[in-house]
Write a structure and sequence with these properties.
Strand content: under 5%
Radius of gyration: 22 Å
Number of helices: 10
Largest sheet: 2 strands, antiparallel
Distance between the termini: 37 Å
Order of helices and strands: HHHHHHHHHEEH
Helix content: 55-70%
């Protein structure tokens, strides 16, 4: 297995960092102001799409509703369909940062699952907005296509990360590792999207992160054994369990995910 892929920090703007690599206070303020404006434009666009219809709404109307000039709109978005997804760029950066900061001993698939949680948290931060946006994307093909393009960016990010844990020189016929990496990355994204759509159809109600952890547990159980941590950094299993007569003994690491501990216990009980 090769060393991890190169840092995803290239997704970040170098203008937002000082010479020593740390973000300055002014760059953080600028980023916050940029995101606030993007959200303001997005709110205006969604309201107009809902009341006038997508096709009948113009960029000029969106800008006017947000109280800015047309040129300001185009500083933030390339098109009106892009306007209702104001957070995807910043969320992609946060997901990449999770991959960058992953501890060496962590299973890469676990890292990817943590990374995509940034996407779910983006939606869960504003349930009402997310539900309305979901309704619009179901009704307007152009918005649906934009959403699909956004999802593809996350999938590419995670696939590159997982591929980085295999020997790139071994990508030849008969070597299934690259296939496993791409399928696993797709599985994580698919599990996330399945849980997200179910939550949105329910009106944004419920503990979506717990539902996501359950879905990721299924992905890990299916693909996790084929993608290991970096050589020399493996740790013992998160949890082990065995039965002794009527007694069940479980040993778990202090950082073991609760869902993984519960699955280990359930398997031990079934064997009994």
């Amino acid at each position: 297995m090769s060393q991890p892929v190169k840092s995803a920090r290239t997704l970040r703007s170098t203008n937002n960092e000082t010479a020593d690599g740390s973000e300055s206070a002014s760059s953080r303020r600028a980023a916050a102001q940029r995101l606030a404006m993007r959200r303001k434009l997005a709110a205006a666009a969604m309201e107009l799409f809902a009341t006038k219809g997508y096709e009948a709404t113009t960029v000029d109307e969106i800008a006017a509703a947000a109280g800015v000039a047309r040129r300001t709109f185009f500083r933030h978005f390339r098109s009106k369909e892009e306007a209702i997804f104001p957070d995807h760029d910043d969320t992609l950066v946060r997901a990449a940062a999770v991959l960058d900061a992953a501890p060496a001993h962590e299973n890469p698939l676990d890292t990817v699952c943590r990374g995509i949680k940034e996407v779910m948290r983006m939606y869960a931060a504003s349930p009402a907005v997310s539900v309305e946006r979901y309704r619009l994307t179901r009704e307007v093909p152009a918005l649906r296509e934009r959403e699909i393009a956004s999802v593809a960016r996350y999938e590419r990010l995670f696939t590159r990360y997982l591929l980085g844990h295999f020997d790139e020189g071994a990508h030849h016929v008969g070597d299934d590792d690259p296939l496993l990496a791409e399928v696993a990355a797709s599985a994580v994204v698919t599990a996330h999207n399945h849980v997200l759509r179910r939550w949105l159809r329910a009106g944004g109600i419920g503990d979506v992160e717990t539902q996501l952890d359950h879905a990721f547990g299924i992905v890990r159980e299916t693909f996790g054994t084929g993608i290991g941590a970096r050589p020399g950094t493996e740790r013992p299993p998160a949890a082990t369990a065995r039965t002794n007569g009527e007694v069940l003994v479980t040993v778990a690491r202090t950082d073991a995910p609760l869902d993984e501990v519960m699955r280990t216990i359930e398997k031990a009980l079934k064997r009994k």
